[in-house]
Write a structure and sequence with these properties.
disordered C terminus, elongated, 217 residues, 0% strand, mainly alpha
């Protein structure tokens, strides 16, 4: 009889424990899915904006080539490295959980950054180019894209850090996250914001108005 009493008491306790475990697991899963959805949303924006960026850079180099054919060697380097960076963006899109994909894109971006920085320095010698509406439009859109990419990188990093912190915040959540398939950290993006060619047109300062002496009495 005492054995049956013991089983009678233990059964509700076991059911309650199972219920709590299932409830907590569902809660953790929902939270992880929400955090993952957030950082993936920002990452998709980075994909789209980066793809557009590497479509615009060749258009910009073609416009520069019209006014500065002597920069052709540098422009070819920019086009070649931009193409490679565009391929790296596609690799990242297919394998975003791989930190190596982020490293590849960062290295490609660093090379593009260096070439664009050199080009920006050279563009000072071509005020006619910098004053053209088409160049201003392209470089202005590039600058806007850079701002958007930088903004989404900050949002992505914040979301990824929150996901990683929650996923591995305590041993129980870590075990549950692994059982549910959330096995990898969301990599943090570093060093992927780049300057766009400046489109500031050179303007001459208006001469200061000359003071006229008061008429004599």
């Amino acid at each position: 009889m005492p054995l049956f009493n013991h089983l009678y008491i233990s059964l509700p306790v076991a059911v309650a424990i199972i219920f709590l475990v299932l409830w907590y697991t569902r809660k953790v899963k929902a939270r992880l899915q929400g955090l993952e959805s957030a950082y993936l949303s920002h990452l998709s924006q980075i994909y789209a904006q980066s793809k557009r960026r590497y479509t615009l850079i060749p258009a910009m180099t073609e416009k520069v080539r019209e006014y500065a054919p002597e920069e052709n060697s540098l422009l070819k380097e920019i086009e070649r490295e931009s193409s490679r960076a565009g391929v790296a963006v596609e690799h990242l899109k297919r394998d975003f959980r791989n930190p190596g994909a982020f490293s590849e894109l960062r290295n490609r971006e660093n090379t593009v950054m260096h070439r664009l920085t050199v080009l920006n320095e050279h563009l000072v010698r071509y005020p006619a180019l910098r004053n053209t509406a088409s160049f201003c439009e392209i470089s202005g859109e590039l600058k806007t894209l850079e701002d958007k990419i930088a903004f989404n990188i900050r949002l992505y990093n914040d979301s990824a850090a929150e996901f990683n912190s929650y996923c591995h915040g305590n041993p129980l959540r870590k075990i549950i996250s692994h059982l549910l398939g959330f096995r990898l950290h969301a990599p943090v993006i570093e060093g992927m914001t780049r300057p766009a060619p400046e489109n500031t047109a050179e303007t001459e300062e208006a001469p200061a108005p000359q003071k006229t002496p008061p008429a004599g009495n």
